[in-house]
## 1
Amino acid sequence: MPLPYTLLITPLAADAPDDGSWFAETFTEVDSSEPALRVSELSTQRGDGVFETLAVVDGHAQEVQPHLARLARSAQICELPLPNLAQWSAAISAAVAQIPQQGELAIKLVLSRGVENGPSPTAWLHASAATDFSAVRESGVRVITLDRGYDRGVAERAPWLLLGAKTLSYAVNMAALREAHRRGADDTIFVTSDGYVMEGPTSSVILRHNGVFSTPAPSGAILHGTTQTSLFEYLERHGHSVSYRDISVEELRGADAVWLVSSVRLAVAVTELDGRQLPVDAPLTRLFTEYLLSPRD
Ligand code: PLP
């Protein structure tokens, strides 16, 4: 089947019987170039829904269960009906069986609140060729920090901001990337208004300082990245120390290596931060890429 490949999914209740034999009846292949959503769809009207993007490398869908667990967490934060994870897992397998078995692809899972006044959520899966990130994995990225406009305690104080959910409302994240480009950088790292590192608009931050790899403590204000979690497991297996903690911007500037990590672009080294060069560990970055491209569950 050529790409892109799209399945509309009739979402089942989270506790529906999961013998799986009839999941296929809840999937409908649709032509990606034809209209498939209603105009009153709340995902398009309000960005009201949640999503996941996972990589497929040479026919293997990476980290399916961690992505589905985060989809469920996002749905819970947004008070959407919880997804039936066995059904979503079956949808991913059904799609992977239809798409090219070579190269890097991306699968996006979307669960929206449905149509206005409608009875149920809308759900779909969309598989497409991944952007070719091989050059940026080698060259790294120049990054600026940008104030996210919130302090560290915001998620607890204002849970309705949904900061820990991967919602469809990425307009702010895309605006931050445009701002970075306007200032001559490739990407950005959000910081709290009181000066602590958060995440990139589409990535998690990992830094190394005195031999310890750190990432901001997962709070309600940032996404807990599947790639960062996977890399920490890899680092620990290889005898390295890892830590989740509050990281100030000064510490980020003094790090001996910084990476932005995410499911499809994988690990890219930060070569410059706010106009100042950062040390780069090119051999380790290549090891990260090699590991992240290997089949991971
Ligand atoms: N933080 C944000 C805001 C993201 O959008 C993403 C991925 O798109 C990540 C972190 C990294 O998450 P993952 O490694 O699961 O792709």
## 2
Amino acid sequence: MIENTPPVAAREHTVESFTREFLRELNFGQGVDLDRASANDKYLALSRTVRHYLTTRWLETLRNQYRDQAKTVAYLSAEFLLGPQLENAMLAADLDEIANESLRALGVDLDELRALEIEPGLGNGGLGRLAACFIDSLATLNVPSVGYGIRYEYGIFRQTFEDGAQVEKPDTWLRLGSPWELPHPEHAVEVSFGGHTVEAEGGNDGARTWVPDWRVAAVPYNYMVPGYRNGRVNTLRLWSARATHEFDLQIFNAGDYAEAVRARTFAENISKVLYPEDSTPQGKELRLQQQYFFVAASLRDFLETVLPADFDLHRLPDRITWQLNDTHPVIAVPELMRILVDERGWDWADAWAVTQKVFAYTCHTLLPEALEVWSVDLLGRLLPRHLEIIYRINEEFIEEVRAAFPGDELRVRRMSIIAEQPERAVRMAHLATVAGFKVNGVAELHSQLLADKVLHDFAQMWPGKFTNVTNGVTPRRFVRLANPGLSGLITEAIGDGWITDLEQLRGLEPLADDAEFRRRFREIKAANKRHFADVLLARDGIEIAGDAMVDAMVKRLHEYKRQSLKLLHIVSLYEGITSGRIPLDAVTPRTFVFGAKAAPGYVRAKETIALINAVGATINADASLQGRLKVAFPANYNVTLAEDLVPAADLSEQISLAGKEASGTGNMKFALNGALTVGTDDGANVEIRKLVGDENFFLFGMTEPEAADLSARGYDPGAYYESDPQLKAALDLLASGVFTGGERGGAVASIFASLTERDRFMALADFRSYMDAQSRVDAAYADHEAWSRSAVLNVARTGFFSSDRSIQDYLDRIWGARPVTQNR
Ligand code: 475
């Protein structure tokens, strides 16, 4: 490798050198003077300047990685919900102060530039954001690792509201260019699809030859993933689909120019758009194409370019773990088998022995309908060889089950990788569990329910395979950057070690009893609220009181998450006030903040959004409620908005039906920023409550066993509706059409019926308990001192939820990889 001198030595940067670099980028990169530069010119020049500083470290990291050949973690994920890059890169590179000073001297407004940044929304929600937190922590913990995913040209749709109804617009995040990516078309790899298989010539056991009938090129786009001030910059490699030349030639030669151009588009469609379904896979052919596309490219990339040419693949388990982020990348399992058996000529048994040591699987759900299956028909058409391989894996697996549980054919049918009903289909979670050397859930309760229920048969067969790694969030983005006020206060009190060792927040515990500390904590929260109010006004034209309680429920719109229960709380308050049951001056001023996208085809979720907006409009228009109740539902909740909301929140709503939310990660972000949680005993809420203490958490609702029991006994929501007058009044008010201009059909009728007739997630059963919890919230909030004491304790006791700790757990329990220290 050629050693070259970097343009700017990373250790020696000064305000002057930074200014020079910035102006040079402006002149030679954008072709403008400072006087004539647009804000976008300045944003791009600044981003590239920051990028240059990181590049030196990046190249160094790559060189070391190649030299050391240390065990590497490849995080395979169809989604990386990165959020804005500029500030995080400046922070990691330790350039934030220098850049600030330099720009101030030049008269450039950094906030204006930051506001221009369009976040890469390459994910739906929790799963994608978790992947982004994890690569941040992998870099900060000095773990040799690479993220692999898809560079969608359109990320998660931009949500707008028209008359309160969600309307989806394309997310054109690349329209102004992205300074954070580096395309490498010369390193494109080919990915094949379709065709048939024929007998192989090699004669090794299990081999066949795949004769595909079309191919696309996968072009890597590299993103830097800087560790926090540790000199390491890891790589995130996202693949973009491009038509191959072969593709062109065949058709152009056939003389049909228009058809040839159309065919190009067909190939390039693969990475065009992120599927907007969260937790409800659609089984669409294009989605399987996407999955195989990025997995095949990533495997090839690692085997052929990251590993040395003479590497003995029998040692693969010493060099890599492929972490499968849910089942989306699981087609990697038959792909590795195909490479080893068909391309490298290994016998089946040898290949399977290695394959079973390199994949580990993370499950993110408990809902049966969220478990991905691919119809045999579709999979066989698109990936005929992979289907054959899956069949053979299944045959051998079933023999194993029969040997372990003789005569138990029901069990065989339950566990088979191939489902027979309602159509023949491949169960990707079963394939992942059979092939993976570890399977983990994402919170204690979730991992337990996986082993006890969802994958019970597998846990009986291989108890040692199952483990837990509780999720976490990166403290760099979600505390240090999002909440500079609180960060400053913490650092003043305990030093800045917490940024990479979040358990140090424990040092704040005694300060919860310090009145002066609490006062400053409250002041920061108040300033964050004012800032959030400014953001909402500028971004959405929504006006909120700067000082009311900020009560936040932000997450994808799903019935199991129960936004409808939150809505019932609001309607019940409104009903109480308008009927005179609740005196107005007894109402704690609250701003209810919602953020939620619904999958475009999820009708009930969209109806819920429309209803929240309708109730919001009515309440917000009621002059007598001014300064008391306000509903703010900014459209298009994303990472950028989260960074402004989370530090401002007082109350975090985590109200899923127990046993349904795998973990949640928003719950962690809020607690770490000093919001108190009103929540069920679900997902990571359980662990949050244990850590912060019952007295600093508002628990309500059934436990998972209670909910399961009620469901088994036969749940009748109508009985709750009839027997709780307050619940009945709220539902009746909703049904009366007062919020919808007299309209009682449509969303109103549909949501009313779904709650009172089926109520799959038992919102009505938890209503009473939820209302009581909210009364406790009001009472607690009235005592400012006690509330802020609890809030400080929430911050002090939730350091466990750093994604650094999650990654350390993955290292210890699953990967067996080790941090490698860089020379700083
Ligand atoms: C859980 N997304 C949270 C979070 O572990 C948990 C599914 C299919 C297709 C596209 N996206 C998905 C998810 O399933 C998802 O985001 N799951 C979430 O993963 C991280 O904290 O409880 O619901």
